[in-house]
Amino acid sequence: MSASLLLVAAVSLAIAAVCRHFRLSAPLVLVAVGLGIGWIPGLPSATLDPEFVLFVILPPLLYSAAQDSSYQDIRASGRAIGLLAVGLPLFTTLLVGLVAWGAVPHLPLAAALVLGAVVAPPDAVSAQAIGRRVGLPRRLMTLLGGESLLNDATALTALRVAVAAAIGATTTVWDGVATFLLAAVGGVVVGLAIGYLTGWVRNWLTDPTLETAIGIMVPFGTYFVAEELHTSGVIAVVTAGLLLGQRSLRVGYATRLQDESVRKSIDALLESFVFLLIGLQLPDLVRGLAGESWAHIAVDSVLVLATVIVARLLWVYPATYLPRLLSRSIREAEPPPTPASVFIVGWAGMRGVVSLAAAATIPLTTQSGEAFPARAEVLFLTFVVVVGTLGLQGTTLPWLIRRLGVADDDTAADRLTYAAAQDRASREAELRLDEIEASMAPDDVRRHQIGMLRKWVTTQRNTAWEELGRGPDTIGESPTAAANRIRIELLQVQRKVFVEERRAARIDDEVFRKAMRRLDFAEGLTDRGDS
């Protein structure tokens, strides 16, 4: 099994690299390649282990997404995110369950609701990966990102209740409500506790490498502790991620830079891994349906997939417009959303590996010892929903965004606000330089350094304002861009000299690595217009 997972990881990264080079949609290509590879005879099996997905893959992805999220934006959109993250999964669970109950033979209502809960949550990986690629506006990304951070907890809690009913365990509506409240409140408490503890430890340390190592362990430890306490590991990880993301300024700059690089690398690996793993599941799922009527399975698949897509569209329009109709304060505080943007939110409901992992946790038997009803069909229908939403919605989403005119309109505003803030920051820095210079003696040799620092502060301001104008394709290279380009060329010249010095054995490897780190850091400080 470990060799199979290692092979999957290596192949997924290679495919992701090719997709990035040719600007292709890596999630869709990875799923398609996985579908093809899965049928090649002789290759080792890569069966999905639900515990591996829920305890190893999901926590770091949720944690990273939470750290990149804006608490202020999520709070400002709290009502809309709550309706999407709590109301929509429950609505989808009910609607899909009712349709599956009437369509799938020998599937009782409780087991049908299990299927509904499994396919209810759009996946955090899918929403973030495809949303970034298609360039959704920030508000829509905030809605989808906030939803994907929290809807797993709603759906997995609903799954617990539905499974308990399906296998014959005693459960009531109030039991379900109590389970959900315990999961939500307990998850928040665990996340806050671990977040504050981690923040205190990282502030106490002064070793960026060790601080980053602790940060890597936070999502796994948080998820494990929360689940052991029978609360929501998803909510706990998201809470800890949001808290530590907001408090990131309390750690050193080296830790922040290192944290981001490590997180992005882990994200790239896990996102590629899970999409290829999705495609590889088909052969095992097909073998589980031996003896079933493929005509009935095809009809059931179409009905369930259509219900999942339609349920989201049926929910988002009333959830968007009814609160505005009922509340004058909402109408006055929030600009009216366009029907096109609401449709895009409704169409961006791709499912992912979490649904497959949740389906794999369905028990084999009920409490009476009988086989769980239609378990193989539930797993296959889940796979159809995952691949179907990725294929249908994922491929058409970019075209719909262009067609409906829902484009990213935040770039110009971001550049303006950044330039204005940088201008104020530069002026404050110049005032501080004036104070420092005034305290120096007239013949102080450090006055030369003050002049160099003034030029650096001026460069920061100029770069921000230059980015507001037309690009270099129309006005040519700006003075700041030219200076940066020359500075990088000079750094490359110096690197070449250090390489030659090492080859000639005039410096050892330790001195060489120290020189390279300093040159790399100097290049990182260079202000670039495309950064």
Automatic annotation (TrEMBL):
InterPro entries with a match to the protein in the record: Cation/H_exchanger_CPA1, Cation/H_exchanger_CPA1_bac, Cation/H_exchanger_TM
GO MF annotations in UniProt: potassium:proton antiporter activity; sodium:proton antiporter activity
Cellular component terms (Gene Ontology): plasma membrane
Functional note: Na(+)/H(+) antiporter that extrudes sodium in exchange for external protons.
One record GO biological process: regulation of intracellular pH
Annotated Cation/H+ exchanger transmembrane domain residues: 11-402
Species in which this protein is naturally found: Gordonia desulfuricans
Family matches, as NCBIfam families: a_cpa1
Identification of the protein by name: Na+/H+ antiporter
PANTHER family, A to Z: SODIUM/HYDROGEN EXCHANGER, SODIUM_HYDROGEN EXCHANGER 7
Keywords in alphabetical order: Antiport, Cell membrane, Ion transport, Membrane, Sodium, Sodium transport, Transmembrane, Transmembrane helix, Transport
Residue stretches spanning the membrane: 26-43, 80-103, 109-129, 177-197, 294-317, 338-358, 378-401
Listed Pfam families: Na_H_Exchanger
Subcellular location(s) per record: Cell membrane
Family per record: Belongs to the monovalent cation:proton antiporter 1 (CPA1) transporter (TC 2.A.36) family.
Keyword Secreted: no
